[in-house]
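Follow-up to my post from last week.
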Amino acid sequence: MATTEHIRPVKPRRGFTGRPSPSPGRLSGRLPWMLLLPALLGLAFLVLPLAGLLIRAPWPTLPQRLAEPHVLEALRLSLVCATVATAACLLLGVPLAWLLARVEFPGRRLVRALVTVPLVLPPVVGGVALLLVLGRRGLIGQWLEATFGVTLPFTTAGVIVAEAFVAMPFLVISVEGALRGADRRFEEAAATLGASRWTVFRRVTLPMIAPGVVAGAVLCWARALGEFGATITFAGNFPGTTRTMPLAVYLALETEPEAAIVLSVVLLAVSVVILASLRDRWVSAS
Amino acid sequence: MSLRARLVVTRPAFELDLTLEVAPGEVVALLGPNGAGKTTALRALAGLTAMTAAGRISLDGRALHTLPAEGRPIGVVFQDYLLFPHLTALDNVAFGPRCQGFSKTESRRVAAELLERVGLADRAAARPRELSGGQAQRVALARALAVRPRLLLLDEPLAALDAHTRLEIRSRLRRHLADFDGATVLVTHDPLDAMVLADRLIVIENGTVVQQGTPAEVARHPRTDYVARLVGLNLYRGVADGTRVRVGELPLSTSERLDGAVFVAFPPAAVALYRSRPDGSPRNLWQAVIGGVERHGDNVRVHLDGPVTAFADITPAALADLDLTPGLRVWASVKATETHAYPA
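User reply:
Got it. Predicted complex:
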């Protein structure tokens, strides 16, 4: 719509004109306990369970438990599936983000809303939905099996599909934000130098939004790694093919709680590493 | 004519409609106040802003308005240069040839040649953020020239530079534009840039041409108030009491009799400079410091700092006589009959 070019006079907010806004930290005096107390409680609520996990972890036997074949198998499966799912999300999600950020089309807002649905959808529901569409009797699943002999449910590929379904919105949102924040005039400059839209995207846009793509991919990977509900619904829980770490944790909790703790510590460690790698971009920057 | 264009852009609350003709090798400056439509005109030429159906651009007899930006034989130097931050200076310049289908090696060879021409061969490996403003401007020019354009477009090419760099880059740019055999259109709000760089000025106000001609013609016969101010008149706002006008600390005498807020204007050529305090008839006199000296047509333009900043145009002979150098204190005077005062 061309009307976005309209220039509207900006009305200064009442009581805000002429005065410099007070910088944070200028307010002094006693901290109000009405705020401080719940704040500290909230902090404890977030941190204590993690601390508990670390305290109860069987540290002396940790290395040998980690080396158990079914743990290694689950870990390997988790890493492979999360990585392949992230790659699939990059392949499909970056162009989707570009479409949402750069192309005007009717219903764009609706499409953007639809893209974020998996973000708020209970993963189990996602798994059921995937079964209905990609299951052996599903709309597309039937055709996939008849034409290519491919079945997705209860296979490793199914795990990847479930993880990608749940994790892709993280990537799309992050990349779309980066695209919206990128200075489009660089793309115009590239066009005047004779670059086609594809060349502009490949040689100018993508390098400039690379940090956003990386941040999105890492978040997407972390989400895929922890995926439980959609995976167990759509792909089941078969050791070696679909039993990823979160599934293994849940299962172990019923039989040998110590193993569950060990697996949880491993997932916690992975999360912390991701957080550390993103701390500049995601945690402190905003 | 190499470029013939009728640029028509319609937006809510703004309409641009101007005709433009540029001969091969000619440099035309679009001059105008902010919001006049200069940059819109340039973007329309580049294909970055859509024109209405009435718009026409032909370059060397070929229709340009039907082509997308990437299909037009143009080179653009943007206001903030817009060098790709992730590429070296060399690869920035090689970007255009690369898009035109040259090999990587060939593109880099062309780019190195152009960087050499703008005197930046030693900065080829630098990223844009490591370049000074003046260097970035030259890389941007090299990048625009690397596509062998038939039409060169420059958007405020000197606006982002500080005053000192500006003088040097302006004369460099003048030489490069003289070497370029295609049509050049540059946009500026700085009359000095326009005077120095352009063969012809087109003054735009509110989306239409209000005046055009050689810099000298435009300066001699200003047709609007904006143009009068634009073409190098020294202009001050002051408070008049009869023929006396107070401009800040400086009292000036004028030939017109006025009261209240006024503008006082006088041409730089009306300013006389002296090494020591002149005697004789009472005239407007103040002590000034030489801020800079540069060529201006057949004359020399002296920048004066002091109670008011002013330009004085003197002959090269006078310059030699007075031995003026920046930082020197001089006396400046203007006859009351050469000032022009009118209500503000």
